[in-house]
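[Meeting: bench + compute handoff]

Bench side (C.D.) handed over the final construct sequence. Compute side (W.E.) agreed to return the predicted structure before the next meeting so the bench team could plan truncations. Sequence as handed over:
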Amino acid sequence: MRRLLLSCALSLTLYVAAFAFLLDRPLTLGALRARIEANLTLGRTTNTPKLVILAGSNGPYSHRCETIQPLIGRPCINAGIAVGVGLDYLFTRWKPLLRPGDIVYLPLEEAQYTRPQATSDLGPDATIMLRHDRTTLLAMPPRRWFAALFSGDLRGAVMSVIETTLVSDDFSDPRAATSGGYNRQGDHIGHTAGLAAANQSALAAVVPFHPTAEEIAAGYGTELISAFIRWASLHGVRVIGGLPVGFTDSPLNVGEKAAIQAVFRAQGADFLETPEGGRYPRSAFFDTPDHLNETVQIMHSVAVARGLEDLMGRKLAQSR
């Protein structure tokens, strides 16, 4: 029995050591990490007051700080990453960089309100923290430590070897040529309507996810968002909620929009809704129901900027 326990302990130690210090995924998780760190670096060097957009990939694909910044007259950082990245991780990384007078705009995807805690804890940020960001990991609740320790699996190990080998062989990532890239402010650029044409048949078949009002109210993401709004209020940071983009022919469920608005208004935060409600025809999208093509991304960003201007002006008038 003692030998069996020692063998189990050794196996567990080797497993954790492999994923914490040896195995890496430079093409997939490395790309996410690079974007997260680039956004944070810009946040550290950007003067207050600034606007920070936090969301999933709806943030960079469907919003454009390059367009919004000159219209609202303040620096803008598009810090949205991906739905799978935990909101608690993003909030923890950004809190030290937010100052009184800053605005955080949250046009979150619907799934971000309702993702279960276990799913959120085992997102790509768990692996990133274990391998590269243990300072943030230690600032998380203990359950996040255990989730990170066991976030690796056989598939991840195999992909790590493949990705590391490709990078060492000077592999050229084709994604920029087929779907565009990112600018300094964190916006996704180059996802043109021309490139989107190849995705139209797939977009026509997509059935978007719409949670119920009850699922949103009870969601783990809602809990994290509410706690962040309370933190922001105590630190002079203004949070403004917003709707994600979506198909015109796939509206939100009855009561869903009110439930999303209630997440913010219950904590005293404002909520921005553009005239079209973020709904566009399928032809306006690039490759998913959360990603507008570049032309419509810019158009939507103008509408968002006007809404932000209106809310900022109202706040200023109230303070006089």
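W.E. noted at the follow-up: The radius of gyration is 21 Å. C.D. will use this when planning the next construct.
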